[in-house]
Design a protein that fits this description.
The complex is a heterodimer of chains A (156) and B (598). Chain A is α+β, with helices and mostly antiparallel strands and 156 residues long. Chain A is built from 7 helices and 4 strands, in the order ααααβααβββα. Chain A has 2 domains: 61 residues; 80 residues, 3-Layer(aba) Sandwich (Glutaredoxin). In chain A, strands 2-1-3-4 form a 4-stranded mixed beta sheet, covered by helices on one side. In chain B, 39% of the residues lie in helices and 14% in strands. In chain B, the strands form 5 sheets. Chain B has a 5-stranded mixed beta sheet with strand order 10-9-13-11-12, sandwiched between helices. In chain B, helix 7 packs across helix 10 and helix 10 packs across helix 13. The chains are: A alpha+beta (156), B alpha/beta (598).
Chain lengths: 156, 598
């Protein structure tokens, strides 16, 4: 993991790369989200200053799109697909089970910072419904009783 | 070029990748090397084969043997038996759900799922290596671009597309040739050709598969379109949630540059064209064209009123043409084979084919491409292989959050734009979610409204507030608190929202509610008047009951988190419905099927 100083240096690089490009706010925010895992106010301010736009504009974009988070996320981000194909095949029950196991509601992060539980839009893996993603790993054809064992893999 | 006696095609689409197809490829390569076959057998990672249900899928050519749900430990057997000794591995061969027939003697095209399909847009998906431009070229790739640039005028290109009758595959079905004509007619120094790959409809993943399986087809079509309308710059707006698609598309663009198929003076003409990729950031409304352009410009993805239409004033204030991925997937074929060929497929007003993503309660989930006009029943029963677990078909939902539900009584209608619209559904982008008797139609309507409320951008009042009021009514109905007059309130709100919302998202948001009321009014009434959910789905409206099948094993009583189950060993137990929280744990614990929902 790069330390904070390094992260800010990466952000400055990203700003320099996109400066002058039309519509640069989105790609820079996307890279910032990747670097920091979220986009706090000082990062937004830095982007605004760097690209020569107002903080309001950056904040407006950051809060419009689901991809950007203003708060830090857990170490492992769980996304349960609540697209139609998964929903009719019982993904809500997977979500309920996760919520129960982690003792958190949807959209929240566990106290130990290990998991964030999100509902996601269709992941396009409808053939495997119901589906969830933990970080980049996709788990398909799920049943609620598989949930505890899967979570344990990330607790070790 | 090296020649091989056999090819192993491993699906590298999202579905199969999720179930470990990358590890399969690795293992195949290891094993082939170990057996000294690496110069005789080639392993290729292709795009999606369509039959995701059977994934991960492996196909061995020249026989076309279809292996389904292959695990890493199965690879050794396929190599040592099939590839070394020429004996197909019987127990891994795909078995048809409907006929229970093994496909061991059949090639891919003879399997029930594929037999009635006709692949135009998906022609190369699952056939070629999407990361290799030479394979695309070997399948006639970039020939259409060469033909357009060197033998046709822009007007002739537009006329060919117009004559083909191709209509937008993203939802609304607007004639593609007309769109091109409008954009071509706008005079400007700079024009843009945009590909809308912000595939947001839940349950639709054809654009993703096309980008992953045949990215060059989109690059080629955009260049053809750019030539036709006089644009020199292309943009692809694609969901960030589709990393494989983004990566392959970028690779395709780079390769096309290397080959001089993008860039300056393409095919020695004075036509210049370049393509950029812009990633979405998780906003459904950005599939709407004006919102999409705002997003490319780096702003909040909010739609604006039309006119001016994008063809007049679009991206960066310049004339712009926007087409969906699947629409573009047809373009090169039309230029090569001609408008008459395309018109010969499909029906009078809906020409060509359409790709559908079959999902939900159906045996063969996956992607299917069928000629327009194919009866819905053929798709569900023959290609889809019917409903699993002996359940009864209830409805099929098409068109996602903008569409509607089609009941069993209308299963014989042909699938084409106008017919679907006339029954209150719509073609949409091609999601087709099958619902069985266990799905509650009121809850499905609630599900879609929940989606649109969440995705409404908030710019216009009818959508921002109107859809929320509708959702509140639906929520109280499924929670057993529905009131007399709720159905009429929903209908009234729906009509007003449809008439007054700013963009397509709001205007079509009430459709799932209206169509379920139209065909399943009795389910709404049962929830409201009898406080009963006929599908036994809505938790608040059902009771768990222990029947006389109970053996008194006490498993349920021990599992109940609130101690609502009482009874003595070896005697029928009982649930106290006052205490019961309807979590369903008892039902999953009962080994005798003695607990039912009532």
């Amino acid at each position: 993991m790069p330390d904070n100083k390094e992260k800010y240096a990466q952000l400055q690089e990203s700003i320099a790369k996109h400066k002058g490009e039309r519509g640069a706010v989105m790609p820079v925010l996307q890279e910032a989200q990747g670097i920091f895992g979220y986009v706090p106010e000082d990062v937004q301010q830095m982007i605004a200053d760097g690209l020569g736009v107002t903080l309001a504009e950056v904040y407006g974009v950051a809060t419009f799109y689901a991809q950007f988070s203003l708060e830090p996320k857990g170490k492992n981000v769980i996304g349960v697909c609540l697209g139609t194909a998964c929903y009719v095949k019982g993904s809500q029950k997977i979500m309920d089970k996760l919520s129960e196991e982690l003792q958190i509601e949807v959209g929240r992060t566990t106290k130990d910072g290990l998991f964030t539980l999100n509902a996601t839009r269709c992941l396009g893996a409808c053939g495997l419904a119901p589906v969830m993603m933990i970080n980049d790993e996709v788990y398909g054809r799920l049943t609620p009783d598989q949930v505890p064992a899967i979570l344990d893999k990330y607790r070790a | 070029m090296d020649l091989y006696r056999a090819h192993v095609l491993v699906c590298g689409g999202t579905g199969c990748s999720s179930s470990g197809s990358a590890q399969l490829i690795e293992r195949f390569e290891e094993q082939l090397k170990e057996k000294g076959l690496e110069k005789e057998v080639k392993v290729i990672r292709t795009g999606c084969f369509g039959l995701c249900e059977a994934g991960p899928v492996v196909i061995v050519y020249p026989e076309g043997t279809f292996y389904s749900r292959v695990k890493v430990e199965d690879v050794d057997e396929i190599v040592s038996e099939h590839l070394l000794k020429g004996r197909k591995v019987q127990h891994l061969v795909y078995v048809d759900h409907k006929t229970h027939e093994s496909s061991i003697q059949k090639s891919l095209k003879e399997i029930g799922f594929y037999k009635q399909q006709q692949r135009v847009a998906l022609r190369n998906c699952g056939v070629i290596d999407p990361e290799n431009i030479d394979e695309y070229i070997a399948f006639d790739g970039y020939r259409a671009l060469a033909k357009a640039l060197t033998e046709m005028t822009p007007e002739q290109v537009i006329k060919e597309i117009l004559d083909s009758g191709l209509r937008g595959r993203g939802g609304a079905g607007f004639p593609t040739g007309k769109k091109w004509q409008f954009a071509a007619a706008s005079k400007a120094e700079h024009k843009y050709f945009v590909c809308n790959a912000d595939e947001g409809d839940p349950g639709a993943f054809m654009d993703r598969s096309l980008l992953e399986g045949d990215p060059h087809a989109i690059v080629e079509a955009m260049a053809i379109g750019g030539y036709a309308i006089g644009a020199d710059e292309g943009w692809v707006y694609v969901r960030a949630e589709y990393p494989i698609a983004v990566q392959r598309l970028q690779r395709a663009i780079d390769q096309a540059h290397e080959y001089g198929l993008l860039g300056k003076n393409i095919f020695g003409t004075d036509f210049n064209f370049d393509i950029h990729i812009r990633l979405g950031a998780g906003a459904f409304v950005c599939g709407e064209e004006t919102a999409l352009m705002a997003s490319i410009e780096g702003m909040r993805g909010e739609p604006r009123p039309k006119p001016p239409f994008p063809a007049v004033k679009g991206l960066f204030e310049s004339p712009t043409n926007i087409n969906n991925v699947e629409t573009l997937g047809n373009v090169a074929q039309i230029i090569l084979k001609g408008a008459d060929w395309f018109r010969s497929i499909g029906t009078e007003r809906s020409t060509g084919t359409k790709v559908f993503a079959l999902g939900g309660k159906i045996n063969n989930t996956g992607l299917v491409e069928i000629p327009m006009g194919t009866p819905l029943r053929t798709i569900i029963e023959d290609i889809g292989g019917g409903i699993p677990n002996g359940k009864k078909f209830k409805a099929v939902q098409t068109g996602g959050p903008s569409g509607g539900c089609i009941p069993a009584s209308l299963l014989d209608i042909p699938v084409e734009y106008d017919t679907l619209t006339s029954v209150g559904a719509m073609m949409g982008s091609g999601g087709m979610i099958v619902l069985d008797e266990d799905n509650c139609m009121v809850d499905i309507a609630r599900f879609f409204l929940d989606f649109t409320v969440d995705e409404s951008c908030g710019k216009c009042t009818p959508c921002r507030i109107g859809t929320r009021r509708m959702l509140e009514i639906l929520e109280r109905i499924v929670n057993g608190k529905g009131e007399e007059g709720d159905i009429e309130k929903l209908e009234n709100l729906a009509e007003n929202i449809k008439a007054t919302a700013l963009c397509g998202l709001g205007q079509t948001a009430p459709n799932p509610v209206l169509s379920t009321i139209k065909f399943f009014r009795d389910e709404y009434e049962a929830h409201i008047k009898e406080k009963r959910c006929p599908a036994h789905h809505c938790q608040a409206l059902l009771n768990y009951v222990i029947t006389d099948k109970c053996k008194g094993c006490t498993a349920c009583a021990r599992a109940c988190p609130v101690g609502a189950i009482t009874g003595t060993v070896k005697e029928q137990h009982k649930i106290d419905i006052q205490k019961c929280i309807k979590c369903g744990t008892c039902m999953t614990k009962c080994k005798f099927g003695a607990i039912i929902k009532d």
